[in-house]
Amino acid sequence: MSFVEYGDTIKDGDTAIVFLGHESMFPVKVQHGSKTQTKYGVIRHSTDLIGKRYGSKVTCSKGGWVFILHPTPELWTMNLPHRTQILYSTDISLITMMLELKPGSIVCESGTGSGSLSHAIIRTVAPTGHLYTVEFHQQRAEKAKEEFQEHQVEHLVTVKNQDVCKNGFGVSNVADAVFLDIPSPWEAIGHAQSALKIEGGRICSFSPCIEQVQRTCLAMEEHGFTEINTLEILLRVYNVRTISLQIPDLGKAAEDNSSTGFDSSNQSNQGSLYGILQQGTAQFKSGVPLKEMVGHTGYLTFATKSLF
Amino acid sequence: MEESAKPGLRICEGDCAVLKRDEVFKAVLVLRRRKVIFEKQWFYLDNAIGHIYGTTFEVSSGGSLQPKKKMEETTTETKEAGTDNRNIIDDGKSQKLTHDDIKALKDKGIKGQEIVQQLIENSTTFRGKTEFAQDKYIKKKKKKYEAVITIVKPSTRILSTMYYAREPGKINHLRYDTLAQMLTLGNIRAGNKMIVMETCAGLVLGAIMERMGGYGSVIQMYPGGGPVRAATSCFGFPESFFNTLYEFPLSKVDSLVSGTFSSETLPSEPEYNVPVEEESNGSLDEKQTLIQETEEESSTEAVMESNETEEQETMDLAAEDTEYKESKEKGNKENIREKQRKQQERRRKLVETAALLEEKNADGLIVASRFHPTPLLLSLLEFVAPSRPFVVYCQYKEPLLECYTKLREKGGVINLKLSETWLRNYQVLPDRSHPKLMMSGGGGYLLSGITVTVEKVQSDASSLEAQKIEEPTSKKRKLQELHC
Fold first, then answer.
1. Into which EC class is this enzyme placed (chain A) (predicted)?
2. What does the alpha-carbon distance between residue A300 and residue A293 come to, in Å, rounded to a whole number?
3. Chain B: nearest CA to A268, how far in angstroms?
4. In sequence order, which ranges of chain A are alpha helices (DSSP H)?
5. What per-residue confidence (pLDDT) applies to B122?
6. What letter does residue B123 receive in the DSSP assignment?
7. Most buried pick, A85, B24, B162, B239, via CB within 10 A?
8. What is the CA radius of gyration of chain A?
9. Are A22 and B176 in contact (CB < 8 Å)?
10. In angstroms, what separates the C-alpha of A259 from chain B's closest C-alpha?
11. What pLDDT is attached to residue A97?
12. pLDDT tens digits, residue range B280-299?
């Protein structure tokens, strides 16, 4: 297993995802002799996990079962230990595409935070690219380094513990793309500019507040960035439900019963828009929006550094 | 395989490039002495060759491109401005220059920048406008009179934006941020073995190939006579990227699943069935596929209720059918031999592709087509290894509702999620930041999930039943809902 390559079977030392049910999962470090408690009972790593195929159903001691999944940056994002607020896959997707990341890209990022975006960037730039990630919080930087090692991607990433606003990224004219998720990104635009390749590249700044965005846009303009564009992306999830709606009784005359479109006794209407299960109700499938959704994560500001 | 900085940096003859003016893009092939029409202007790309990608050019008279120096910001010496618009009256008399005057200026070869300056000087109301309104005025006039274009390197970002703006019907209205979600949710990366089924002109395929960087393999499933890759060719991938690109006809999928597959009949190849009657000049094969493609296209259009106007404009690259020209020039006999050789080569690759699929160990499945997703998913998921992601795009929500239900009934998939994304652009100016007036009404829907092993012995339903018994009732219902 590695976060940049699929493996077929679960091995000692792997980070696997234990899937209990929708939205209910957690990561586990596979170790010989180790045990993991779930609500369905104990999973014994040596017998239940090691050697099994990823995607297998594993029966726990109480008889319930779970699936063991191969880790991906997306599953990691859903399960990682939060040390900070993190970026989720919806924003990450847009960032990756708009920064034009691909295998071989050199990327600078700050801050590292909990490493959610870092894992996604590493996945995309592997096997020939590199991520330089800068985090001003020492413990977070160290923890991130450990995780990259555990996930076998340490050769693709350099973690630095410094303040990007003061000391920059520690590299110059190498990056194809720069990503900023810091409290005052406008202070780091100059450093971002010099980290990018001479011939140019892309930059993205993520900020929750519009005031931050305004200052950042001004700074980008001052540093000669072009194509400055601010946008926001929201994920709308739908629950798939079968819904039955009652047909109101409008007091129709008895003889009209057979001609009404909603009458289940009418055979000719079986193929109609409404699936009729029982008298007086119409059944259909619907994608029901969640009662509450994330309405704001942050504004994404993209820009291009170009020679001209 | 990787694009080292040096060779891809400059615009070369034969490159696939993208012209850009403000938010408008157009993919072109860089050729000498070839007239290009873009945004109501015509010009030749000859002078652009040798310049660095990202250079902005000015179109001068005679259609030649001149690189534009770093923006000599239009002088903002007119710092005189009004406070509000109470004195601005719309009587159509504020501009003293007439249409003919402006046309005369243009004909004299006066630069766009100069024309804008003259417009400002001859506007009676400009000084009375607020500073903000002045900015807006200048920006608007610049856009109209300054003939500048930028030449950029193609990428998924640029091509998906271009297609969505210009020809959404060709890509089933797949918005670029939705495509971005697909690439991430599908865990597309170097080294994967991906199955792709798309009818988005090859845009989704191209996006996947870009993310894989020539490492790993892609199997494109195609309907009809052959895979459509018009948009794929716009990416300008190196030749090596196509060595690991395979294609497989959808019409053979069922036989492959049931184990009755044979390579003997390729879809829509009349010359195979009647090899002797080949007296035409050999362009039959190409023509045939062409007809089929146009048929497909027109039927798509009918569904998409769209009226593409500038179809050829983006499709300039596709028109470049070198194969067609080649085969026309060749002699008849040689032609037939060549054809048979190609035929054999095709069959060899088909067998190879079938073998790749039969390993049933693909690292993911991406579907973005105009077809109903359910049958595609039910069949193609057979070829995907357990614990791998899959993503299906559909322009409409309802087919995905059905697909969701059918997949749950069949089993072997978890973490099913139906979603869409909303994308909102912002105007950011000091003290004047707000969402833009217009936003996209919809970018399509995605159904994503993860494959798992299917146990043949114990049916999923019974084990779910067993688990439910242990759970308290409240939990039970929840579990049933969640275990999807």
1. transferase
2. 19
3. 23
4. 73-79, 89-98, 116-125, 138-150, 164-167, 189-195, 210-222
5. 81
6. B
7. B162
8. 26
9. no
10. 28
11. 98
12. 333 333 333 333 444 344 34
Q: Do you know the residue count of chain B?
A: 484
- pLDDT tens column, A150-162: 999 999 999 999 9
Most B CBs within 10 Å, among A19, A240, A284, to test the B interface: A240
CA B134 to chain CA centroid, nearest Å: 37
What does the alpha-carbon distance between residue A287 and residue B33 come to, in Å, rounded to a whole number? 54
pLDDT of A270? 45
- In single-letter form, the type of residue at position B247 comes to E
A299 contacts on B by Cβ (under 8 Å): 426
CA distance B278 to B459: 55
Share of chain B above pLDDT 90, in %: 52
A90 membership: H or E segment, kind and range: helix A89-98
What whole-number distance in Å separates Cα of residue A133 and Cα of residue A116?
12
Question: What number of other Cβ atoms are within 10 A of residue A85's Cβ?
Answer: 12
- Measured CA to CA, the distance from residue B325 to residue B183 in angstroms comes to 36
Beta strand pairing call for B389-394 and A200-207: unpaired
ipTM > 0.85?
A: yes
- Best residue in A53, A93, A151, A153 to probe B by mutation, most B CBs within 10 Å? A93
Name every residue whose Cβ is closer than 8 Å to that of residue A231 and which is 6 or more positions away in sequence: A94, A299, A300, A302, B423, B424, B425, B426
Residue A303 contacts residue A222 (beta carbons within 8 Å) = no
Q: What's the alpha-carbon Rg for chain B, to the nearest Å? A: 28
Whether the upstream peptide bond of residue A127 has omega within 30° of 0, thus cis, is yes
Angle formed at CA A123 by CA A117 and CA A124, multiple of 5 degrees:
90
CB B6 within 8 A of CB B52: no
Q: Which residues, 6 or more positions from B399, have their beta carbon under 8 angstroms from its beta carbon? A: B372, B373, B374
DSSP B128: G
Q: Give chain A's residues under pLDDT 50.
A: 259-260, 263-273, 277
A301 forms beta bridges with A205, A230
* One-character DSSP codes across A172-232: -S-BSEEEE-SS-GGGGHHHHHHHB-TTEEEEEEEESSHHHHHHHHHHHHHTT-EEEEEEE
Q: Which residue of A has its CA nearest to B413?
A: A55
Q: Which tokens in the block code for residue B159?
A: 């091509």
Burial of A189 (0-12, 13-18, 19+ CB in 10 A): buried
Residue B325: how many other CB atoms lie within 10 Å = 11
